[in-house]
Design brief:
By secondary structure, the protein is α+β, with helices and mostly antiparallel strands.
């Protein structure tokens, strides 16, 4: 998670000979740029060991902070320079082994000359000042617009610790940290350990923390500000929860403490290794780049995802529980045992995603967590794995500039799905024992993929090298399909066929699945038989199904054990299309809905046919999790229709009214169930576009129309204001101004910005395009990112066209001038795609011309082109006039 306003560097390939050679004569001078290559990191870790940091920070709440860092370390040789990472600081003094030296510093790293070093123990002390960051990395600073209090927090992944203090900023040079912080008297400070002393010094306090155990630099943390703090001592590990004072009323601390307590008990038991960090702090922080971060014992969470101005819905609570469990799993797998280099980041995240879902399902009320995983995270992985930019789970990372190039749904969700099916393949207890052995063997150390797989293989008494090659080093998702024949009402033969996605990705894989047979009867579609099968190769015979009743539907990945696209046979697809309401099992219903949606995205099932099924079945859906999946697909359908523009305008207008009426009626009918009602009302807001629906929203905002049971919270008010401004409803701008006055909070400012930017006004779009392009803007990056996300709504294709050519022409220039953090948002929101053959051709031309884009930006361009082609194909497949 990297700094945004720096010139992107050309990544260096990792040369094996260079990385392996510790001799002084083999040390090649480090490239003069902001990033660390794997080769340079390997060369440095071959020389440096036993690192200890002594950190002293002075925080005032102003835009700069000061620090003094002493690094003590063993050096195997002193025959070559040594670099210490430190980003954009003003050096006050540099002392090496007791002698003050003139700094050799390029604003990215300090170079210590060989003459100042010695073989054996060394000490380097750096005193410096630095600006706080405002992009979410390093030591981020935010001024609360409500009460003007200042809050800071640290964020270091993947390699941003050097934006806060001098450090060997690579995961395999673990160190210990002893920290002292001087801060304003009304501030509290959280770090990896609990403080051992707080000393009053005038208007400040000096916080002293004991030395930590060994941690990678990206796992260490220090957060400070006038946070509201809640405490819980009901479990074996003391818990604290932090939030800004102005948002404290939105926090439900008992929910946080409850899920955290349950999770810690689950992981202690599952891993068989006690929680390693003694206390458990969690902080809700503003302007956060991601969902959450697993800093050891001082975990940070994005306010925007976890603060709500109404009682949390069941879905919001499940999201909270799942993310708490994900970050908690990292405390063992990631913090206690850490990857050696960033190519192992996928395993870190995949394991936490898998274990987080398992812990949620087995230790909270959300026992259907795997159903949510299937319809959410796993579908994201399938989509990603079918793109032109698909990649293996394990990929090279030549430099820290590339650490997040392949961090996506494959990294998180395909990896988690792969671990899930490996657990079925090996057996649950064998898998757990292998994980336990791994954590015990490599505690407080760094490990590689082979170490983890080796531990599982030893527990299973089998060689997993073939499995590893198939699943982790080869890209793409396989398709499985049932091939069977019936005679006299019975199955006479049954095979499971596996196919590869293309000749370029021919790998066929081994995994274990369940095959479910279903028959229609008076009570609906019922399971008649299921068998577990381990398959590999192109065809696997399933003799166990011979003689079973000829099914109306076959699902060859029943209960979602495996990771594979399911291709329903013709009879099964027809049953799925006609009998969604006759399926009792919510997970199977989810899978059948997904089969229909897969047909839409492949341009095989017309979008209007899918919407017929949605209008007929969605109002009767009784499973809350599945309803969220269905309404998500309805929103995606509406977005496709809006992108299609004038050619689909008549049908879009007609079906939009039908969707509005369905959602509004369902919201009214669900007045006795707040969770269902809020889900349906949110859907209504998200599909409302007709004059009648917008007028109803305006009346609800004004209190003229009351939906029985619905609390029109501040969050809901902003959603309505945004929708009214998006469609230029008369008086919408005045409503926006009034809502800004009503809610001056940071979240209110962000919501107001979205509502302003989304207005269908060419002048507004031009002004915000200029703001986004200004890399020297004083706006916090969180606001710039919000503007990017809001600028061009799907129905605003004509407005997007006004600047489309300009944005594509300038993409290469922006990519070179901005850093990876900025480009991850920019490339995913600002590349124009307008669902026309002209737009597709324009993108194809850009792909041919822009050869020098960074890896992440080029991927975004390729994906945008592919999805634009998909939208055109879906439009062609429509069967309406």
């Amino acid at each position: 998670m990297k700094k945004s306003m720096i010139v992107a560097a050309v990544a260096l390939a990792c040369g094996a000979a260079q990385a392996a050679a510790p001799a002084a004569t083999a040390v090649v001078p480090r490239a003069e740029n902001a990033f660390l290559s794997q080769a340079d990191a390997a060369a440095r870790s071959a020389r440096v060991s036993n690192v200890d940091y002594t950190l002293d920070f002075t925080l005032t709440g102003k835009e700069t902070f000061s620090g003094t860092t002493t690094l003590a370390f063993d050096l195997s040789d002193a025959g070559a320079p040594l670099t210490i990472d430190l980003d954009k600081a003003n050096l006050v003094s540099l002392t090496v082994n007791g002698k003050e030296v003139a700094p050799q510093y390029n604003q990215w790293f300090i170079t210590i000359a060989p003459a100042d070093l010695k073989a054996g123990r060394n000490s380097v002390t750096v005193s410096y000042t630095r600006l706080h960051s405002t992009n979410g990395e390093g030591l981020h600073r935010m001024v609360d617009p409500v009460d003007h209090r200042v809050y800071t927090y640290s964020h270091f992944e993947p390699a941003a610790a050097h934006q806060m203090f001098p450090v060997f900023d690579q995961p395999d040079l673990k160190g210990t940290y002893e920290i002292t912080v001087t801060a304003p008297a009304d501030w509290v400070v959280s770090s990896t350990k609990r403080e051992t002393g707080i000393q009053d010094i005038g208007n400040t306090k000096r916080w002293t923390f004991p030395r930590t155990k060994k941690l990678s630099s990206y796992n260490f943390a220090m957060h400070a500000g006038p946070y509201k703090v809640w405490e819980d001592h009901s479990g074996p590990y003391p818990q604290r929860l932090f939030a800004r004072q102005s948002v404290a009323a939105q926090v439900s601390p008992q929910d946080w403490f409850n899920y955290t307590r349950r999770g810690l008990a689950f992981f202690d038991r599952y891993f068989g290794v006690p929680y390693p960090f003694e206390k458990y702090d969690q902080l809700l922080v503003p302007d956060f780049l991601y969902g959450a971060m697993e800093n050891a014992a001082a975990i940070t969470f994005a306010e925007g995802r976890f603060l709500h101005q109404d009682e949390m819905t069941a879905a919001q609570k499940q999201n909270l529980a799942g993310v708490i469990m994900h970050e908690m799993a990292h405390q063992w797998f990631g913090d206690l045992v850490t990857m050696k280099w960033w190519n192992g980041l996928w395993l870190n995240e995949s394991f936490a995603s898998f274990m987080g879902t398992l812990a949620t399902a087995e230790s909270t009320e959300f026992t259907n967590a795997w159903q949510g995983f299937y319809s959410g995270a796993k579908q994201g992985a399938y989509v990603q794995d079918q793109r032109v930019t698909t990649h293996a789970i394990e990929t090279p990372v030549p430099s820290t500039a590339n650490a997040f190039d392949n961090i996506d749904a494959i990294t998180y969700s395909k990896g988690a799905s792969t671990l899930k099916q490996l657990r079925h393949l090996l057996g649950e207890e064998v898998f757990r024992q292998g994980v336990h052995n791994y954590l015990v063997k490599y505690s407080y150390q760094n490990a590689k993929l082979d170490d983890f797989i080796g531990s599982l293989g030893e527990a299973a008494h089998r060689d997993l090298s073939g499995w590893t090659r198939q699943w982790l080093y080869e890209p793409g998702v396989n398709t499985i399909a049932a091939e069977y024949s019936c005679a006299a009402g019975k199955i006479s033969s049954f095979k499971l066929r596996q196919s590869a996605p293309s000749k370029a990705m021919p790998t066929l894989r081994e995994q274990r699945v369940q095959i479910g047979l279903f028959n229609l009867g008076a009570d609906g579609l019922a399971l008649s038989k299921n068998v577990a099968v381990t398959y590999q190769g192109a065809v696997t015979a399933v003799p166990e199904l011979k003689g079973a009743a000829c099914p109306d539907l076959v699902y060859p990945n029943y209960q979602d054990w495996g990771y594979a696209q399911v291709q329903l046979d013709k009879k099964s697809f027809a049953t799925a299309q006609s009998s969604l309401g006759k399926v009792d099992d919510p997970l199977l219903r989810s899978m059948l809905w997904q089969s229909l949606w897969d047909g839409v995205r492949a341009a095989q099932l017309p979008l209007n046919e899918f919407l017929k099924a949605a209008l007929a079945n969605a109002p009767g859906e009784k499973d809350y999790t599945l309803l969220g999946d269905i309404t998500g697909k309805i929103r995606a359908s509406k977005a496709y229709l809006d992108k299609m523009g004038p050619s689909a305008a008549a049908y879009t207008a007609q079906v939009s009214v039908q969707l509005e009426q369905m959602a509004f009626a369902a919201a009214n009918a669900a007045s006795g169930d707040k969770n269902f009602q809020r889900r349906w009302f949110a859907t209504y807001v998200d599909v409302a576009s007709s004059p009648g629906a917008l007028a109803q929203l305006s009346d609800i905002l004004a209190g003229k129309l009351v939906v029985p049971g619905l609390n029109v919270s501040q969050d809901v008010r902003w959603e309505i204001v945004n929708r009214l401004n998006r469609y230029a409803y008369p008086g919408a701008a005045a409503l926006l101004a009034a809502e800004q006055a009503r809610d001056p909070s940071d979240s209110g400012q962000a919501a107001a910005l979205s509502a302003a930017v989304v207005q269908p006004d060419a002048k507004v779009k031009a002004e915000w395009l200029a703001n986004i392009a200004d890399l020297q803007t004083k706006l916090p990056f969180s606001k710039v990112r919000r503007a990017m996300e809001s600028l061009y709504a799907p129905e605003q294709g004509a407005l997007s066209e006004l600047s489309a050519a300009q944005r594509l022409a300038q993409l290469g220039q922006v990519d070179k001038a901005a850093g990876p953090v900025f480009m991850r948002s920019y490339a995913n929101t600002m590349i124009p795609a307008n669902c026309t053959p002209v737009s597709v051709q324009r993108l194809q031309g850009a792909i041919g011309k822009l050869k020098d884009l960074s890896a992440g930006t080029r991927r975004a361009l390729l994906v945008t082109h592919q999805e634009d082609e998909r939208c055109v194909a879906i439009k062609k497949a429509m069967t309406v006039n």
